[in-house]
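Thread: Newbie trying to understand structure tokens

Hi all, I'm a second-year student working on a class project, and my supervisor (Dr. K.) asked me to get a predicted structure for one chain before our next meeting. I've only ever worked with sequences, so writing a 3D structure as a token string is new to me. If someone could post the tokens and maybe explain what I'm looking at, I'd be very grateful. Here's the chain:
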Amino acid sequence: MVAALESCEVVLAPSWRADTEEGARGARRDALTTCGCVVLMLAVVIALALLSN
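---
Reply by user tm_fold:
Sure, no problem. This is what the structure looks like when written as tokens:
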């Protein structure tokens, strides 16, 4: 694998690369998904705190 990388014989899928539009779109999607999960977790914690009183 190292030899293939050094000789530039490895071809990565465009979605794995940050310098392609497809890769940038995937990175944005992943960031939005992460933000959505954090917001959902905060909503659950707030709901549990309100319901426990």
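A couple of things are worth pointing out once you decode it. Residues 2-52 form one domain. The first helix runs from residue 2 to 6. Feel free to ask follow-ups in this thread.
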